[in-house]
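Re: [help] complex structure
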Amino acid sequence: MEDIEIECVADAEIGDPVLVEGLPGVGHVGKLAAEHLLEECDSQLVRRVYATDFPPQVNVDEDGVADLVCAEFHAIETEGADLLVLTGDHQASSNEGHYRLTDAFLDIAEEFGCERAFALGGVPTGELVEEYTVLGAVSDAELRGELEDAGVEFRPDEPAGGIVGVSGLLLGLGKRRGIEATCLMGETSGYLVDPKSARAVLEVLEAALEFELGYEQLEDRAEEMEEVVGKIREMQEGGSGIPDDELRYIG
Amino acid sequence: MEDIEIECVADAEIGDPVLVEGLPGVGHVGKLAAEHLLEECDSQLVRRVYATDFPPQVNVDEDGVADLVCAEFHAIETEGADLLVLTGDHQASSNEGHYRLTDAFLDIAEEFGCERAFALGGVPTGELVEEYTVLGAVSDAELRGELEDAGVEFRPDEPAGGIVGVSGLLLGLGKRRGIEATCLMGETSGYLVDPKSARAVLEVLEAALEFELGYEQLEDRAEEMEEVVGKIREMQEGGSGIPDDELRYIG
Amino acid sequence: MEDIEIECVADAEIGDPVLVEGLPGVGHVGKLAAEHLLEECDSQLVRRVYATDFPPQVNVDEDGVADLVCAEFHAIETEGADLLVLTGDHQASSNEGHYRLTDAFLDIAEEFGCERAFALGGVPTGELVEEYTVLGAVSDAELRGELEDAGVEFRPDEPAGGIVGVSGLLLGLGKRRGIEATCLMGETSGYLVDPKSARAVLEVLEAALEFELGYEQLEDRAEEMEEVVGKIREMQEGGSGIPDDELRYIG
Amino acid sequence: MEDIEIECVADAEIGDPVLVEGLPGVGHVGKLAAEHLLEECDSQLVRRVYATDFPPQVNVDEDGVADLVCAEFHAIETEGADLLVLTGDHQASSNEGHYRLTDAFLDIAEEFGCERAFALGGVPTGELVEEYTVLGAVSDAELRGELEDAGVEFRPDEPAGGIVGVSGLLLGLGKRRGIEATCLMGETSGYLVDPKSARAVLEVLEAALEFELGYEQLEDRAEEMEEVVGKIREMQEGGSGIPDDELRYIG
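Output below.
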């Protein structure tokens, strides 16, 4: 097997789609958002990407059938822009692997004619979030205007630690290929899977790309999480005096 | 030395053999099972596989003679299907290495004409096992029927963490080559070497491939382990109140 | 993307420049010194070096614009020798990467005609430093004379652990290319970012290369650190009995 | 720089030399033994081996001159067999690197016409050693006889964990090239640098290769260690009740 193998599952009739990436990361915000797009819209699986830098693993489905771990591209047509959605269960396991994978992802995006990309993710605040601000970063300052109109906040030199992983490289390597790339980071505690943060990110995407989504499924997941969050609040306020960093061990 | 070097030790007159893999893993179930096949049947060493991804190590035999660590293929003729048994002392030490090794193993299997593969292993239950169920996963749903007849259980989306290592990749990469691959996972505590689980797995293999084995040697090893298990039970029931996860430190 | 990619940003009219390296390390001495050179002198960005061995990361600037992490070369003309200053936020993340990166750095240096190189860094003393001695190491014994005149100390077999990372390899690999390479190591506690040590190193560089620098900005940073150091001294002398190695956790 | 670079320092007039390897390992037995050979005999540096798998490091000599870490081959003529002595300060830092390095070492050995190799090292006993037995392992059972005559012990399947690192691979890879390879392992506590164990190993080498060594320098080092050992014994016998594994933290 090559370091990376791209399997062509189907071709899609989508016009100048926008690449939307949502791989695992802080609060699983990006992954939740991308998967919600696939659940809410008619989507077509077009490519699978296998990589020796992914874990040596198969996942077993409801029928007991095993499939090699991979990243997937789905094509979605919306009333606004068409989307090419990248999601999966794994990031690369080495620095070099992250660069190699992101290059392969960008090759596929260019093959489909993508000139714009949105990397979806979360940014950790260290405490439970009341208002779900979406932080932005762009490959080109000219992209800021329409995003700020959509409610995205830009803070100088934030996130302080930079943006790491495939999301970061989509901006860094995409920029070098002339792709207009944006990273949308939903604020999230960093301790919990955060469907509300995912929704905040998707609402920005709706505004920027002029399409509309339902949110019932994300709301269901959000309610499940609310119960967990409720318990945490009790522990904190109920004088149980759990230091904040105890939270790191929850959820 | 190349990343992988295959040493041709002998050729074997076996017809369309079935690949049977048993490398180290949970409860050493797969390795115990594969080694028992070599002890119980007339087997012929046909290939050695050396890899720079194995530990930089030689093992010393009873005569003080050192040999480079490797994986081995043995050919076995049975009254049912012929077998090509893969075993050894090591898995690869990197993600990439697992993919590279499994590809090499499948090349050898195809060279011998294998169209079917069984990956043998264990699945951890976290507690001492009373009834040795064998869990299954397949590369193709059509393979389920005869396995269920042989007593294999298929549970949706299990094992939850997927199947990792060479066993997993034999299904994942084998499937992409058109090999019918099955993973048989004997339930085992995960704390102990488990000859009984190995026997449960082998009994499924006997039924599926229509041959018969003796089990004296595995029974001897099982009796040794019974004593250990007995002590553990005492500790647990004898009010010593050892929490289950203490078990992780035993055996 | 290749393992290493060199972006030509501009060409510079500098004559036989001296390579000056200051990447992150002990007390950030080298990085502080190199960045101070860029702040105090008119400098021109001439090359960017991207590497798959750097973290898979973009950094976000004051405008929210993201750029791929890289190392940078700036050209500086002084009244003395011209300088080619190498700085950045990261070392390589693997042994092989360090060798590969340093080779690329030396290729660029040779392209600009560098025949001399200074690697700037810190050497940890394990305790707060009163007098900022600069320790030296050279690729050729003949380089010692002028450095000793500039106040550099040479101690047999020191630093005991050798010199690690890009600084060390600039000497080791540079020597093999016939480049006269010197490592200037400012003594520093090893617990704190140390602008004073950076200044001590730069003052040697001024003397050796016959140019002059202002130090206002480094002095400002030094004053900030003085407050931290003051607190530490109190803790130590104030009978709070903090063992020295507690310091490891400060700053 | 290539993964491995071999620098030809000098050619040597040695006839069919025996390769003798002593790199860092348990108790530094092999390294002490090889360095003692270089101190006691007239030796000539013939090759240096640089590798990107070594630490990215230079060492500084008594004159403040820095040199890239490497492994070295020295040629020695004795009244018995001529020797090609391999020593250095580092093993490889990855599995693959160990294989690559050992292959390069064997290439050099074959270039000098070596048909025999001795890998020198230590085997940990876990307790202070009274009698310095030397354990042996060979690439071919026929090599045992003369070694047993020289006092080497062969124990079935020992060392239990196999022989790891360059020493192990010299046997494993050397055997595949038709080189008669022997590993001599001096028993040593595993907690301390052990000159006495190094001497025990060298005395076997003297007998096997029919040459003679002085031991003054090793005796001096042994006396230094004796003092440390004395203190340890006091601690153990003096009822201080230090559990044996405390020893792991000494020396």
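The helical segments of chain C are 29-40, 95-111, 144-149, 166-176, 195-209, 216-237.
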